[in-house]
Amino acid sequence: MAEIVLRNLTKRWGSFTGVERTNLTIADQEFLVLLGPSGCGKTTTMRMIAGLEEASEGDILIGGRRVNGLDPKDRDIAMVFQSYALYPNMNVYENIRFPLKVRRVPAAEHHERVMRAARMVELTEFLERRPGELSGGQRQRVALARAIVRQPNVFLMDEPLSNLDAKLRVSTRAQIKNLSHELKVTTIYVTHDQVEAMTLADRVVIMKRGVIQQVGSPVEIYDRPANTFVAGFIGNPAMNLMTGELRGGVFSGENVRIAGINGPDGAVVLGFRAEDASVVPAGGDIVAPTYTMELLGDATMVAVRAGGALVTVKAQKDYRIEIGAPVEISVPAGICHLFDAAEGNRIETAG
Amino acid sequence: MRFRTFAAFVAPSLLLMVLFIAAPLTSVFVQSFFVTQPQIQRVETERCTAGFLEQQCTTEIKNVPVLDENGAVVTTTRFVGLDNYRAVVRPDRAFAALSAWDWQALMSIDFWKALRFTLTFTLVTLPLVVGLGLAIALAVNNTMRSIRGPVIFVSLLPFIVTPVIGALSIRWLFVGDGILTRAMEAWSGTEIAMFAQGWTIELLMLFYRVWHVAPFAFVIFYAGLQTMNRETLEAAMVDGASRFERLRYVIVPHLMPLIVFVSLIHLMDAYRVFEEVVGFRSQAHVISLQWLTYDLLQPDDAGNRAVSRASASAMLTMIGIVILLVPLLRKSWRDHKGAR
């Protein structure tokens, strides 16, 4: 059983810092997703846990054992790579068997374990094929089977779905979720796709420039973003963030005026989600000419300029408006999130 | 591409290949079945000198070449079947030597002596060149990026040296009073003569060829290593493969097409070994097939060149190369088919 603890984990290349003093405890059997834009240090963090990258400072503990100096093979981990990283000269069966072979697992067990892993990812029909003869989704399933065949303590997955097309991504994602539930193995999953993070994770870690921004369950991160970065990163569309001034419970800015907000007076950033607000015929908090209208099928998105940003609101699917025509949007105080203007950190409001 | 465009691009090279490769090859092939000799006629001449009572006459029978009206020797060319090949291979003597298990006797026939050395040379240098090339490529690939350039440059130097010059410089280093011989003598305390017996010369020849060709293998393999998927190597590390297992299961399979390519090129080159025999002046001890052909073309005391036998020898060399290449060509053909 493997709990993973990162203590002050840091990675530097010369003067460039990839990961800055990261502290994180990943519970046994937890599915943790590292989420962030490219270059945020999420892959570096995972590679340090795997042992493919040496930590500049700090400790990595897996199952209570410090593994900093150990080779990847001695850390009892399995990894799935973005490019699948299969052995092109071996067929599917040999690919899955490879970890057993090089780890001197008794040969008598090989066949049964390979077949079990292949069944779990539904690959039994393709065992004789070379990776070159498989589709992307099948290849990634081979990589998954190769990872689970050894029953390691920790799974590391580095953007495993990024090279798949949208449709395959959904089905493979479901398969990964199901596998992790079945195998009950601690899993760290790196992605830049928030949908993957939201659907798969027990907890999500959001990183930016090597620093953790927020750790929490998908619901927490969506409902209570810790700062404007998280707010602007999570959700589709991302949270609307308007700059303005709060005075006596009234937020005012370009084209916007919202009353009834608890918070300290001064410059603030006010955020709300597109689906929480609504377009109203009159008496809206935001009044502005329509900037654009997008038809999504299940809804119509209306965008206006307000508070120094483009603000998007979700309307009924049959709602139509001309570009340039004035629109009124209702933003109740209850749906609003407050962030301080300087640092972007969340200001807890009483409501 | 339209056929005309294709033809326009390919034609010049095709023309030159026909002119300088196909045509000479055909000519050599044909010549190897014919013998060209000057036409000889038997002339009876009677010479008489004035004598006291009777004339003194002597008749003399002489063989003289037939001359045409311009005074040039008339030659005839005749088909002799495999006679030229027999004259080179000497199957009768070789068979007698083989059935008597007499190695010395077999080695006293030039062709077999040359074949023995050529095969040894080719088959010993091949694994050394591939192995050393791979080792250098892996070493360079693992050195720091900052010193990689100079390391590559130094590794390539032997390849740039002209073959004959390279062979000569090795000879000068190891010849009777060469500095390396002197150094070895001073170190071991015994007389050393690297050029007094066949096996030491052979050793130097092998060493020289490996030294000269390994950089070529290195460059090819190094290029191949750059296309290696780094994640596949890392996957092997995580899966538990040791350094050697990564080499065996991941790197070598990835480089296999290049290994086959280098082997093909090297087999063709090494089987035609010639510069070493000339550069090391080894013909008293060690000769190669290519050198044999060259030797047959040298005018003998009467100024005749054994062109027909040289052609047969050249054809035999070619056949040897083809036989060596077949397994490799079959492998790459199978891979080619399998890849599709």
TrEMBL record, chain A:
Keywords: ATP-binding, Cell membrane, Membrane, Nucleotide-binding, Translocase, Transport. Residues 4-234 form the ABC transporter domain. InterPro entries: AAA+_ATPase, ABC_transporter-like_ATP-bd, ABC_transporter-like_CS, ABC_transpr_MalK-like, ABC_transpr_MalK/UgpC-like, Mo/tungstate-bd_C_term_dom, NA-bd_OB-fold, P-loop_NTPase. PROSITE patterns: ABC_TRANSPORTER_1, ABC_TRANSPORTER_2. It is found in: Cell inner membrane. Pfam families: ABC_tran. It is a peripheral membrane protein. GO terms for molecular function: ATP binding. NCBIfam families: PRK11650.1 (NF008653). Belongs to the ABC transporter superfamily. This is ABC transporter ATP-binding protein.
From TrEMBL, chain B:
Residues 115-330 form the ABC transmembrane type-1 domain. Keywords: Cell membrane, Membrane, Transmembrane, Transmembrane helix, Transport. Its main location: membrane. The chain crosses the membrane at residues 117-140, 152-174, 206-225, 246-268, 310-329. InterPro entries: ABC_transporter_permease (IPR051393), MetI-like (IPR000515), MetI-like_sf (IPR035906). This is ABC transporter permease. It comes from the Bacteria. It comes from Shinella yambaruensis. It is found in: Cell membrane. The keyword Phosphoprotein does not apply. PROSITE patterns: ABC_TM1 (PS50928). Belongs to the binding-protein-dependent transport system permease family. It is a multi-pass membrane protein. Coiled coil: none annotated.
